[in-house]
Design a protein that fits this description.
alpha/beta; 5-stranded parallel sheet; about 15% strand; globular
Length: about 375
Amino acid sequence: MSRIISQLWRSFAYLLYLSICIEVALQGFYYVTAGDFLFRRIALPIYVSEPYAGFGNRPGLSFDHQTKEFRAHYFINKAGYRVPRPDVEYTVAKPANTYRVMILGPSFAFGWGVDYEFSFAGVLQQLLRERGYAREKKIEVINAGVPAMPLAPQIAWFDQMGRHYESDLVIQFVYGSMAVKNVSEPPYAVNDKGYLVSPYGDGGWRWRERLKNLATVFYGWVLWTKLSTARPSAQLEEKGGAVQEVGREIAASTKFDPLHPEVRGATQVYTRLANVVRAAGAQLLVVHFPRSYAIHREDESRWQHLGLLDIERQMAFDGDLVHHLNECRIPSIDITQQLQKSAQAGKRMYYWLDIHWTPAGNITAARAVADYLVGRS
């Protein structure tokens, strides 16, 4: 019996050693291909619970965010808005002779990975001032972006809080697929340390997040996803040429159909946003932009394990939905072409590992929006 137990222990030790060797090798492979180790992918403790959207930026925060690709500092004022300096606050009542812009959206609106002066909000404010937008009025931009914030919960926040700021223009960022979900429940809660967590209790969520940082788990999932999503083109045609957004399939036909449930549901969300913004006395502009693989094709390898099938079809779908919103009198623009043009000129619009805009990406996006606004003024 003791001999059997000894053999089992030796076998277990061997398997453990082999697993460690494989993990080290795969972490090294990820480092070579992605620029960092998987276990360094960490969340940021920058959040606080919020009654309407579920979570928001932590008021009074001063946070230094440093990765292999960038170093940026975030200041959050007392109201929870990102600001260029810790002493910047905004009165709820709009000051006289001021044209006020409020920016809504997730981390791209927030300005993840760049200092404030290189963020979309900072660059847009400078451009509008330089171009004399709103004539003699002072341009004031309130950055209400919150990293990881979906559209529907942010609409609820604006309806209860943002509308009181008397904005003249509200800019809503939509990243990735335009077919947003009509789900108002916040996807995250905030723990006592300021991290986003599952709103349904731990339930193994924390352990799942840790396991995702193991290279053996990550690449095992990559392999499984590729095998499960590998389908011949004939099968795609049988499903109506489904549009594949990263992580989920949008079962919409190749020909854009405004009556399709996915499109109708998304249109309802945008209509609700437009109605809430108009009721607050402001104009709305929806700004759509894609994930990095649509701008830098060398980034496709970073996304294919999530089910990326047809970039051109996805981009056409999003462009058609933008056009549909304009027909519904919901002002919307797609800045994909401007980002592509800058990328073709040799500029990197998105970080490789982090996937957010670089300073050049923020500048290009701000110029595209400024061009649109000034051209229609």
